From TrEMBL:
Keywords: Decarboxylase, Flavoprotein, FMN, Ligase, Lyase, Magnesium, Metal-binding, Multifunctional enzyme. It comes from Saccharothrix australiensis. In the C-terminal section; belongs to the PPC synthetase family. CTP binds at residues 287, 297, 333, 351, 355. The keyword Lyase applies. This is Coenzyme A biosynthesis bifunctional protein CoaBC.
């Protein structure tokens, strides 16, 4: 595909597809990448084409599909594909493909491409649990990661046949989010959180008024899910306490606890935080709840309705700061709007001082910012006085900056 002089240069992605049943999900990965402006060349294995035909990949990508090094020999594509790529993603990466990549075998176009790539490489495993847990596979994964290859954590769930367990391919949306993150920031996923337990809260709480209505907020949970996803891919054991999250699919490799109200979220976070190395409060916790819950739907009448009396909810972030153990890092979030009295950053500084947390992410909200959108921006404030701008980008990119700062706190 040729880029014109006036057209923006599109990121060039090689999408490798291994020969596993999850190969059908690569079609959705391909669709999402192309629709978001990436130029994608699909390089399947012969085994992958037994699950999805070449015509499907060609129709979705607009690019030819080859599996061997003897197709289109004049272009030397077994070298050029890897040299020219901005990112190589292999999904699914079977146990066989991981072994070949770890030991430098090159018996088809995809494995040759992996040897010539000097861009970020993302391998997304999919296999049965026994294969993922086999010492040979674990050694291959460790070897690849030691070389800087990003080997994603697989999801848990239904596998082939009646089996369930760890080894399921993450959902296409998650794979694309990781791919976008590596294109934005190639060093975003080091394995620097291994051996750590982190707790992340996400989404908006809902405080019931009657069996039908509630008091809530606009938080979608996307930022909290991105924080959990990035932490898991950086090696942490992650507990995600999720309030209402717009039907988001839980990130791969993450333990999820559900909470509805502020009180439920408070209890779940405090339980999980007892042995956590870091707690990140990204959830939008309601400040108030109705004092009384109406047992029946409040009916519309001709007279004015009774006023709703509110009770203040507990300040979960402040409680976590008071209860934190030695070495535990506590991170807060502040969704702010400026006014005639002060700007967003000034309100963020005041909240950091008031709450006493180690780090505070400040987001300006409103007008399509922060809530219910894919991207984010803001500032990262530290209790040591450091203030770091967080440039506009994906919520996964912002999450990677937060974990960078947390890891620096771990190192003192």
């Amino acid at each position: 595909m040729t880029e014109t002089a006036d057209a923006p240069v599109r990121p060039r992605v090689v999408l490798g597809v291994g020969g596993g049943i999850a190969a059908y999900k690569a079609c959705e990965v391909l669709r999402r990448l192309t629709e978001s402006g990436h130029a994608v060349r699909v390089v399947p294995t012969e085994g992958a084409l037994k699950f999805v035909g070449a015509a499907t990949f060609e129709a979705l990508s607009g690019q030819p599909v080859h599996t061997d090094v003897f197709s289109d020999v004049p272009s030397v594509q077994h070298v050029r594909l890897g040299q020219d790529a901005d990112l190589v993603v292999v999904a699914p990466a079977t146990a066989n493909l991981l072994a070949k990549a770890a030991h430098g075998l090159a018996d088809d176009l995809l494995t040759n491409t992996l040897l010539t790539a000097r861009c970020p490489v993302l391998l997304v495993p999919a296999m049965h649990t026994e294969m993922w847990e086999h010492p040979a596979t674990r050694a291959n994964v460790a070897l690849l990661r030691s070389r800087g290859v990003v080997v994603a954590e697989p999801a848990s769930g239904r596998l082939t046949g009646k089996d369930t367990g760890k080894g399921r391919l993450p959902e296409p949306a998650e794979i694309v989010e990781l791919a976008r993150l590596l294109l934005e920031r190639p060093d975003a996923l080091p394995r620097d959180l291994e051996g750590r337990h982190v707790v992340v809260s996400a989404g908006g709480t809902r405080e019931p008024l009657d069996p039908v209505r509630f008091l809530g907020n606009r938080s979608s949970g996307r930022q909290g899910f991105a924080l959990a996803r990035v932490a898991a891919q950086r090696g942490a054991r992650v507990t995600l306490v999720a309030a209402h999250t717009a039907d988001l699919v839980p990130p791969a490799g993450v333990d999820v606890e559900r909470a509805g109200t502020a009180a439920e979220l408070r209890d779940a976070v405090h339980r999980a935080a007892k042995d956590a190395d870091a707690v990140v409060m990204a959830a939008a916790v309601a400040d108030f709840r109705p004092t009384a819950l109406a047992p029946h739907k409040i009916k519309k009448t001709d007279r004015d309705p009774d006023p709703v009396e509110l009770t203040r909810n507990a300040d979960v972030l402040a409680e976590l700061v008071r209860a934190r153990r030695d070495g535990q890092v506590v991170v807060g979030f502040a969704a702010e709007t400026g006014d005639d009295g002060a700007d967003v950053l000034a309100y963020g500084r005041a909240k950091l001082a008031r709450k006493g947390c180690d780090l505070l992410v400040v987001n300006a909200v409103g007008d399509g910012r922060a809530f219910e959108v894919e991207d984010n921006a803001g500032w990262l404030l530290s209790s040591d006085g450091t203030e770091t701008p967080l440039p506009h980008g994906s919520k996964a990119r912002l999450a990677s900056a937060v974990w960078d700062a947390v890891e620096r706190w771990f190192r003192g």
